[in-house]
Amino acid sequence: MVFCKHSPALEPTLLVPLLSKPMISTDSDDGPISDNCSKASTAMPVSGSATPVSGSHRSLAILSGHVGSVSCLALCGEFVLSASQGKDIIVWQQPDLRQFAKFGQGEGSVKALVTTGNRVFTAHQDSRIRVWKVSRSSENIFRLTATLPTTKDYLGKFMKQSNYVQTRRHHRKLWIEHADSISCLAVCNGIIYSGSWDKTLKVWRISDLRCLESIRAHDDAINGLAAHKGVVYSASADGKIKIWVKNGEASHCLKGLLEGHKDVAMNSVVVCEDGRMVYGGGSDGCLMGWEGDSGLEKWKLVCDVKAHPMAVLCLCLAGEFICSGSADNSISVWRRGANGGLSRVGILSGHEGPVKCLQASPNSVGGGFLLYSGGLDRSLRVWWVHKESSIQRNREAQRS
């Protein structure tokens, strides 16, 4: 995504970069990290000695400024975007996490967001998707350019009765409309996928913002989506993760079904880089993983761990690591084994409310990676998560 240069009217939230000192490597891919940050009114750096985390993981900063609980996050280049149930969206500029822009007030509560190209797509409690672009006439102002479904899409369908579906008793809507809150979004190959509490999965083409398809996907609310190489994974309160594949030019068809624990909602789903492993987080605090064959039709449960004492609300991937955020206010960091099993390597504590969303930086920083978390305590937190080197793992294996 391309943004305008920084506006002088915006005050920085951190006065120095989070990683202000050079990394001193003690190993081929490990090294200490500096968390020496200056104080500011909207950001609270946390010193290493006071960090309530295990091992060498570090809490780097606490960013405040949202008027409601932080509901979703997205990374795009040097920017971090966070949105809240208070309807506001903040763009933070890395590495010092200055507030670059703020927009979105007055619209429906934001439930999910994704970025692609020079646009931001936000999903809202009012069952609409909004499309934003940076205004070229004014720096740092995000301009609303479209609302989905678009007026053009409406006009092309509202006259034909066959385009209406019954959403509840005595109430009908066009099939291109969601009938309840949109809870999640995913983007892949020029397509935006939206999942809703109305149990449907909708497919939108980015080029013309047209709704191509509506799938009655689940028997209960859809809570999470992941898309990988044209395959879509939907997690639902009905306790299932379903796998959808587009069949040529035809509509999406159900390719696989992953069943969690009985009467336990699936709140989130992630898929690994090769598409062979899928992990889901449940409302019982369990984290489950399935391994699939090359055809994505046969799946085997290879992992079922009690990750948290309360519900797993969000998941994110960072290479061989999986991070899980929970209603117990904590984040667990897991390493994936060769067989898909998980071993916990750290617990990050500090949020004063349930952890609602997670995003991990794809880039390695000082032998680790940056993790961003948003919670119902209205804060966005930044963590540095240590990656053990292969040398250290070999030493541990020899000692054991």
TrEMBL record:
Give the matching InterPro entries.
Answer: JINGUBANG-like (IPR045182), WD40/YVTN_repeat-like_dom_sf (IPR015943), WD40_PAC1 (IPR020472), WD40_repeat_dom_sf (IPR036322), WD40_rpt (IPR001680)
- Which organism is this protein's natural source? Aristolochia fimbriata (White veined hardy Dutchman's pipe vine)
Which PROSITE patterns does its entry note? WD_REPEATS_2, WD_REPEATS_REGION
Q: Does the keyword Repeat apply?
A: yes
Presence of keyword Cytoplasm: no
Ordered alphabetically, the record's keywords are: Repeat, WD repeat
What name does the UniProt record give this protein? Uncharacterized protein
* Domain of life of the native organism: Eukaryota
Tell me the ranges holding the WD repeats. 175-214, 215-244, 348-393
